[in-house]
Amino acid sequence: MFAFIVRRIIGLVVVLFAITVMTFLIFFATPGIDPSRQLAGRNPDPATIAAVRHQFGLDRPLPIRYALMMKRLFISRDLVSYGNTAVKVVPAIVSAAPVTFSLVIGAAFLWVVGSILLGLVMVTFKGRWVDPFLMVLALIGISIPVFWLGEMANLVTQDRLHNTFLFHWVPPLGYTPFTQDPWQWFLHLIIPWITLSILYIGFYARILRADLLEIQSEDYVRTARAKGLSPRSVLVRHMLRTSMITFVSLFGLDFGVLVGGGALLTEVVFGLPGIGLLTYNAITSLDLPVIMATVIYGAFFITIMSAVVDVLYARLDPRIRPA
Amino acid sequence: MAEFAFEPEPEIRLAPGESAKAIEGKSPWRIAGRRFVRDRLSLAMLALFLVILIGSWLAPVYAHHIAHTDPFVSNLTGTTVVNGKRVQVIQAQSGGLGLGSIPIGPTWHSNYFIGADNQGRDVMARVFYGGKASLQIGIVSAVICTLVALALALLAGFFKGWTDSVLSRVMDLIWAFPVYLLAISLATVLLTKPGGLKWGPVTVNSSSLWVPTFIIAIVYVPYVYRPIRGQVLSVREKEYIEAGISQGASNLRLMFSDILPNVLSTAIVLLPLMIATTILTESALSFLSIGVQPPNASWGTVIEDGQSLLYSRPLVSIVPGVMIVLTVLALNVLGDGVRDALDPRAKVHVRE
To answer: Which of residues 46-65 of A touch B (CB under 8 A)?
Structure first.
């Protein structure tokens, strides 16, 4: 187990290095692209371009430029945004992170509870109308673009039904930090949580259902039934626990992807000032250092999460643990 | 002496409720076709998808002969006829301070059927054209992605060794990036080049649909590559491949006429699900204004246009969104149907 963890960490370091190189190459060495022209903003004059080129060391060889950029990103952490040179990129990401975490953790809670319930109901009512009906519902859930669902939620809760008893409690779009007012924090996030979790509830419920149906014919399930255990106990204590192995590993990866930037569209639609909104604002103003930093941050987070999942998975399921 | 067990692998399995007689002596493709034709829901969804596809391709017909507008030209001072009266397309706002202006709402007539956007363009006609662009990008990028992944997986799985290591490491690297962030990185870099991109003899205008098509195709290659490579690796060890090698068959022959047909069904199962995924990705990129560029329209750009009109003219956002949901839903059900037809017990999922 120890050797496995060490190997995984070495692999992780290699991948993280490769990620920074690839991101750097995409932004600063794509053929036919002059980064200084983009860094200088829209319609820059030649003097600005030359100044930017020198300031960023873009007149120097590629490996040195890479080293300089990484130094400013990780060691001195003084990389500045181009839209607003007073904004330092790394602190901006750090201060946006709690918003993204709040959004994703709440949604993750909803989708775990929701999909397990839905999956269990579908398996329990297999062969009756409830099962195909819920399957269709789950399929619709995974077919809705999340940004559009968010807009529709806004349309209903902020405008059309806002003055009725149903949604008068919904606060205007935006975010209140948990430390400032936990109740307002909660109210602001309810609709975004539901919106973000619907796709995942549909997806996980379908996977769980398929998994449970497959496990149904395993020997140990038959044994449990033969012992005279109640159907509910067989389903929850024996079958569900086995299918949790797949569930947990998928969950770790999806959680990583969402915190790493996958929640971008939800943050944009609901005006939540997290890392996704930071990226979005950087896209609209073509702020390359911010985009590059958020992309590297996201890829780092996802890679580290998937390494953690691998190790946890090996603990959960000794069969896949390498000798 | 060693014992050889020649147990044929159960490659063709019975679907639930299917009799062995029904599939006896038939080729795998005929069996799949038979199962698919009996799957009413999948057929209905295929029909729905084809209706949307053909309808979108008739976008010019709708714009010129039914709506009588050009949905790519702004029409701020134009007029249209509602209930026999001639009205402005962009109307002065009566409420509030009376200073703003608001595009006309749904007329429920051929002209401005569901109203106009901020620039006075016919939204219904834009939804038709948007569907054309969205479906084109979705289908073409899914096909390119699948073909590239298939070729790479064949190379990696067939030659193994360092070819496999290099290809798989590159795929792992692309995989490590969040799909949207990778697409955003590529799009911001590629779309902001004034005057288009020049690579040697090839010039791509940055408003060309090929830019989002290629970006989306690239980011999903690892998702198709992984399952197919696994299959190629296992097929590579089969006796018939060994037999081919011992008879001196060339590598190309082994790859294309012996291995490819055996992994093709996975690619076919993945294709509708991939198109569903690429359409969703395209709409998200366009919504973030880094997908389809003006003057072109896609469902995502129409939703983006409707964002500022969400509370006053919600139909501008609702209609293209409903089209996306219907199309993606049809493709998802279709993907399930194709999977059940080809291999009733396979587990294939595509994720965003």
So the answer is: none
